[in-house]
Automatic annotation (TrEMBL):
Any single GO CC term annotated in Swiss-Prot or TrEMBL for this entry: extracellular region
Keywords (A to Z) from UniProt: Secreted
Pfam families with a match to the protein in the record: HemolysinCabind, Hint_2
Name of the protein this chain belongs to: Bifunctional hemolysin/adenylate cyclase
InterPro entries membership: ConA-like_dom_sf, Hedgehog/Intein_dom, Hemolysin-typ_Ca-bd_CS, Hemolysn_Ca-bd, Hint_dom_sf, RTX_toxin/Mannuronan_C5-epim, Serralysin-like_metalloprot_C
Length: 1145
């Protein structure tokens, strides 16, 4: 076995200057010469026999080994080691390889053990590069596994799902592309293979039999003299051959030869046999189709004079079928006929099927292109450039990820994920725009864009578009609602308007004013010129009219019309009015005059006395029913007052309906009093139904519009801020959703006397048009019943309302509200929210991180399984939410407000936490010693202290934690401004002092005219006055603590809560009587915010995503002094307290 040195053929040829390198290698070769290529020389530098040599010129032989590589065997033997060596002279040799390692269309494993048809292997030394290991690999179709190995390789994965490992070097890796796929060879269809359907074509024919074309089939083909055609027997005086494509003159039809191609082509040639154009005027015809649609058709003739001509079909675009027919001869004496001896075409490969590729760049600065498919891409170490291409790609990162540039791509079914779960070192994620930002571990930084989702180390996906959770409303309560019978066609609640909530026939209010009604608001009429006009209301022979009213007084001798539809002096009219107190014959009478087509005017038929209710200040319900065969009845407060046998004939008043006036607006016929809840039914109500109208028939109900759920935790890691929400499924038709806020509310009143449940699917769409959905169950118990409900879905929202309820959640994150009385709530699995409500409730969270919500009046609750395990951030897995609890002075509770005892009274029982107003929670299985310190209570969710800063507002001072978005605050520069966004940052774990960059600064009482201290963050600015310039200037709190005696650091503090108040523009607030700045969203301030708070801030100010802050939000309200400037002003005593009153004026 010869031993020599590998020669690197830089261009595939053995030439002077080619590198000879590495250690000596033994190789195999068949025979001596000609396997040995011939003699030549090499020049080497190194060491032999213990002596150094430089540029030694020595002879030797060049060999072609079995592995396809060329080796040099020196005549003087193997040297000790080589520093450099090159070819000096050599025989002529060119590698038979093409420089590319080719795969097949199968599932190949291409590595240094794979040899292609040209004898080329990975890292075989016949590539380019210093060592000849820079290979080009074309894997072709199939699910290939490719290991590129050494140096800078280019790999084309080709179609389907490939696994590519670039190895070392700066590689270029493609998931789907393969420009080196072998070109398809031409295929000829002849008499020997026309029945073959495995070569990219199918040939059939149709014959003319009895004047009708047969169906297409290969059995309809026959051959003649090296040609093939239709096998039918068409009469032809010029030719007796049946195996041809012939035109049947008697039927006017032609036989057909049909060729279907497996994949579209754009060119072919065909050769005819015996198309006798010169002798008989015969003409052929072909038509091209693609996917059933005609692309092109043409006639053809023989140009050779022999009848055997080759015709090119090209330039008409893609086609997947050609149909040959014959035409009548040009002399019209007979039909043409001919055969086909050859059809030649180049099959087209189907478009590569993009697969879900897995590509690992390995070491080096790689270029990686995932292209189509759901690819998994890993750049490895080095500064890589990675493009995912179309569809949902995953970019895996691990420790030492390098300075990569990652582009997710926006095509296909897009949802690209940056997976950081393999990174164990601390990282910082910074968002610079929608779907873009950076990831840094302190040494390496990745820049990413077009990324919809991030999976962070140690967490699950925190991109809210896929994590849709839901919250409920602890304040859902029942009210007493009026029962409305069936048949309601028009309803005017008169809530300050004349909207028809039942029939949509809205009216117009003219002068009447809004007052408190019996149910909501009502309208008050002044007896002068107030009225409501309603477009014509359609009525029939049977109906009911009802309204609620109060009478101010009935002074006078005329009439006050409450309801007027049609002229009282004409048929088809209904008028309801009051005879005033001084009326000559019937004072203080309420009259109903109804005239159908058969009635005459009768003012006395349906009147009744109302003296007792005039000016009593009470609401009363009037009702009129009209029934065929029974007649008319009038009721007051559900009690029948009068009746008449007339009524029930054909009836439909014309003209508009007037409330509070007669239909002609007579000045002496206006109403003085209040009117509410006018209802018209298309049927006569029964006496029992009449009693339910008004205040006498009410049931417990949850009002329409009540919010019972909302979509929560939809926060995009990709920077998408806004989302739209829609209900795609509402099985009971009970709910509606606000497209912007995600709040789910009741469409109509819910009768709380019975339990109700529904299934709702919420679809969430973000600005990148990514859409996700989640199905939840909403269950509402009865107001008084003892409900037992088990949530049927992954996520459930459940309300027990009244009664001793037993509510059990599902496998997801449930929100369960017990309501009043003593309830039993069980969250089951998932991170649940449990709200016992009032009463002595038993709460079980089950597995998962659960929240137990306590509020003022929540009673004495018991938690069976409170999980005190550290969740990893210094807080317990389960949490107590006490934001709704206050102390005896109305302040939010803190850890020092809690009294810890136990059920045994000796420290051995279950811990009992009692709050200032008597609410308590017993934690079964938890010893009091485990929860009796402020840090322990704080870890459970009870704050160690509250912010408490008093902010000046137009209505006085308000604690900053009580401010809400939209509240007005007083600013020195602009007067009242609304709060645009508010959030808080809870810093510190309570185990060690806070670091100096977030350590609070305390401004002492009296230091700046303040009576109480002010605690702010070190970067927060205080407004003061520069006496030299006379201008107000901002001074950072930390500089005041470092350079003056006005402030000091709160050293030793282990926890702090900073509340951030953002306005429409930067301004100065009055905080504990000190002028201090509103939140300014600069880089340092943003770093203090949690991801959740930052995303909400971006929702309020999307401009901040692309920054800079000065351009997106605006400049600060005043200049900020540097530390150097502050020292100068302090030294010259030129910095003074700002006179707030003077500046505000």
């Amino acid at each position: 076995m010869p031993t020599g040195y590998l020669v690197t053929l830089g261009d595939g040829s053995l030439d002077s200057g080619d590198v000879i390198g590495g250690g000596a290698i033994s190789f195999t070769a068949d025979g001596a010469y000609p396997t040995g290529l011939g003699s030549g020389q090499w020049t080497w530098t190194g060491e032999a026999g213990g002596f150094p040599y430089t540029n030694e010129l020595e002879p030797g032989d060049y060999w072609l080994a079995d592995d396809g590589n060329v080796y040099f065997v020196p005549d003087y033997g193997i040297v000790d080691f080589i520093t450099t060596s090159t070819v000096t002279s050599a025989p002529v040799y060119t590698s038979s390889g093409d420089g590319t390692i080719m795969g097949t269309d199968g599932d190949d494993v291409i590595d240094n053990g794979y040899t292609d048809d040209d004898g080329e292997v990975v890292d075989g030394g016949d590539g380019t590069g210093t060592l000849g290991h820079e290979d080009v690999i074309s894997a072709g179709a199939g699910d290939d596994s490719i290991t590129a190995g050494l140096e800078n390789d280019t790999v084309y994965g080709g179609g389907e799902a490939d696994t590519i490992d670039g190895g070392s070097g700066d590689d270029v890796l493609y998931g789907d592309t393969d420009p080196n796929e072998l070109a398809m060879s031409p295929v000829s269809i002849t008499t020997s293979n026309y029945t073959d359907t495995s070569s990219g074509f199918t040939v059939t024919a149709q014959n003319v039999v009895g004047g009708v074309l047969t169906s297409a089939d290969v059995s309809n083909i026959s051959t003649y003299a090296g040609s093939f055609g239709a096998s039918g027997a068409v009469s032809d005086t010029d030719s007796g051959v049946d195996a041809q494509i012939a035109y049947d003159k008697s039927s006017g039809l032609s036989e057909k030869l049909i060729v279907d191609f497996d994949h579209p082509i754009d060119e072919l040639t065909f050769t005819t046999l015996s198309l006798q154009t010169a002798a008989f005027g015969e003409v052929g015809h072909y038509a091209l189709y693609n996917d059933g649609a005609l692309v092109y058709e043409a006639d053809f003739t023989d140009s050779t004079g022999t009848g055997n001509d080759t015709i090119l079909v090209s330039g008409h675009g893609d086609f997947d079928q050609i149909v040959f027919t014959a035409l009548i001869q040009t002399d019209l004496t007979d039909g043409s006929d001919y055969g086909i001896s050859d059809i030649t075409f180049v099959p087209s490969e189907p478009a590569p099927v993009p697969g879900n590729d897995s590509i690992d760049g390995g070491a080096g600065d790689d270029l990686i292109y995932g292209e189509e498919g759901d690819d998994t891409l890993d750049g490895g170490s080095g500064a890589d450039s990675i493009e995912g291409g179309d569809d949902a790609d995953t970019f895996n990162l691990s420790d030492g990820f390098g300075n990569d540039t990652i582009v997710g791509g926006e095509g296909g079914t897009d949802k690209d994920t940056l997976d950081l779960s393999g990174v164990t070192e601390p990282i910082t994620i910074t968002y610079t725009g929608e779907e873009s930002g950076t990831v840094s571990d302190g040494s390496d930084t990745i820049s990413f864009s077009e990324i919809e989702n991030i999976i962070e180390a140690g967490t699950t996906d925190y991109d809210g578009t896929t994590d849709i959770t839901f919250g409920g409303n602890a304040n859902v309560a029942t009210v007493e609602k009026e029962v409305v019978p069936d048949g309601l066609t028009n309803e005017y609640k008169l809530e300050g308007d004349a909207v028809d909530s039942a029939g949509g026939n809205d009216g117009t209010v003219n002068g009447a004013t809004t007052v408190a009604g019996n149910d909501g608001n009502a309208l008050s009429f002044d007896e002068i010129d107030d009225y409501v006009e309603v477009p014509d209301v359609t009525m029939n022979d049977e109906f009911t009219v009802s309204f609620q009213f109060k009478i101010d007084d009935t002074t006078g001798s005329l009439f006050q019309y409450i309801y007027s539809h049609g002229d009282i002096n004409s048929t088809n009219s209904l008028n309801i009015f009051i005879n005033e107190a001084s009326h000559g014959t019937d004072p203080n009478v309420l009259r109903t005059v109804i005239r159908d087509n058969d009635d005459t005017l009768d003012n006395f038929a349906l009147d009744f006395d109302i003296s007792s209710i005039v000016s009593d200040g009470q609401w009363h319900t009037y009702t009129l029913t009209v029934e065929s065969g029974v007649g008319s009845k009038v009721y007051l407060d559900g009690v029948e007052q009068n009746s008449d046998s007339r009524g029930g004939d054909s009836f439909n008043p014309s003209g508009n309906l007037f409330l509070g006036a007669r239909e002609d607006l007579n000045a002496d016929r206006f109403f003085g009093g209040d009117l509410d809840s006018v209802k018209i039914f298309d049927k006569p109500l029964t006496s029992s139904e009449v009693t339910t109208l008004g205040s006498s028939g009410t049931v417990p109900a949850i009002e329409a519009g009540t919010i019972v759920a909302d979509v929560t935790n939809v926060i995009d890691a990709d920077g998408d801020i806004g989302h739209t929400f829609v209900l795609t499924d509402d099985a009971g038709g009970k709910f509606t959703i606000d497209a912007n806020s995600g709040e789910i509310s009741l469409v109509g009143d819910h009768d709380a006397s019975t339990a109700y449940s529904d299934t709702v699917t919420v679809e969430v769409t973000d600005p990148s048009a990514l859409t996700y959905s989640e199905t939840i169950g909403i269950s509402i118990g009865s107001d008084t019943g003892d409900d037992t409900v088990t949530g049927p879905h992954h996520q459930n929202i459940m309300y027990g309302l009244g009664g001793h309820d037993q509510l059990t959640g599902g496998s997801g994150d449930d929100a369960i509200y017990g309501g009043t009385d003593n309830d039993t709530l069980d969250g089951s699995t998932g991170g649940d929210t449990l709200v016992g409500g009032s009463g002595s409730d038993s709460l079980t969270g089950g597995t998962g991180a659960d929240d137990y919500v306590l509020a003022d009046g929540s009673g004495t609750d018991t938690v069976s399984d409170f999980d005190l395990t550290d969740s990893g951030d210094g807080t317990t897995v389960d949490q107590l939410n006490v934001t709704g609890l206050t102390d005896t002075e109305g302040n939010p509770v803190n850890a020092w407000d809690v009294v810890v005892t136990d059920t045994n009274g000796d420290g051995t029982g279950d811990a009992i936490l009692t709050f200032p107003n008597g609410e308590s929670v017993t934690l079964q299985g938890v010893l009091p010693s485990e929860v009796d310190s402020a840090p322990e209570l704080n870890a459970m969710g009870i704050p160690c202290f509250t912010s408490g800063t008093q902010i000046a507002t137009p209505w006085g001072k308000i604690a900053v934690e009580e401010l809400r978005e939209g509240d007005l605050v007083t600013t020195l520069e602009y007067g009242p401004l609304p709060v645009r966004w508010i959030a808080s940052s809870d810093l510190g774990e309570g185990t060690a002092p806070l670091p100096e960059n977030v350590m609070p600064v305390r401004l002492k009482p009296g230091s700046l005219g303040n009576r109480r201290p002010l605690i702010v963050s070190p970067q927060h600015c205080i407004l003061m006055k520069d006496e030299q310039s006379g201008e107000p200037v901002y001074v950072r709190a930390k500089h005041l603590a470092e350079e003056t005696r006005l402030a000091s650091f709160a050293r030793g503090r282990k926890q702090v809560t900073y509340v951030h108040v953002l306005l429409d523009k930067h301004a100065t607030l009055i905080s504990n009587e000190i002028p201090s700045e509103s939140f300014y969203p600069g880089p340092m301030a943003l770093e203090m915010l949690s991801l959740y708070s930052r995303m909400n801030l971006y929702a309020a100010f999307p401009e901040l995503i692309s920054g800079p802050c000065e351009k997106a939000y605006g400049a600060r309200a005043a200049r900020v002094l540097t530390r150097k400037e502050l020292r100068k002003t302090v030294a010259h005593e030129m910095l003074t307290r700002l006179e707030i009153e003077l500046l505000a004026a």
